[in-house]
């Protein structure tokens, strides 16, 4: 899986959040990744390797790839 993601990309995670949503917005990229739930607004941080394991799909990157 090609894991190209950037700041302000929307991503879908493998497991749903406690509020029931699985759509997240990337708000910080670095050694740690900070994501914000688009449904309830809760923010969490995790290290990059954990994020890549839990990532299912990058929405904004996929849309740009199809347009090219």
How would you portray this structure in words?
This protein is of the alpha+beta class. It has one domain. It is 24% helix and 37% strand. Strands 4-3-2-1-5 form a 5-stranded antiparallel β-sheet. 12% of the residues are buried.
Average pLDDT value? 87
**Percent in helix:** 10-25%
Q: Evaluate the radius of gyration.
A: 11 Å
Spans where pLDDT lies below 50 across 5 or more residues: none
Separation of termini? 19 Å
Q: For the report, how would you describe the main beta sheet?
A: 5 strands, antiparallel
Can you list the strand order of the major beta sheet? 4-3-2-1-5
Along the chain, the helix and strand elements come as EEEEHEH
Shape: globular
What fraction of residues sit in β-strands?
35-45%
Secondary-structure-derived class: alpha+beta
Number of helices: 2
The count of DSSP E runs of length 2 or more, i.e. the number of strands, is: 5
- Count of distinct structural domains: 1
Structure at a glance:
The chain has two helices and five strands. With 68 residues, the protein is α+β, with helices and mostly antiparallel strands.
Key descriptive features of the protein:
globular, alpha+beta
Give me the secondary-structure topology.
Layout: E1 10-13, E2 23-28, E3 32-37, E4 43-47, H1 48-54, E5 55-58, H2 59-67
Antiparallel strand pairs: 1-2, 1-5, 2-3, 3-4
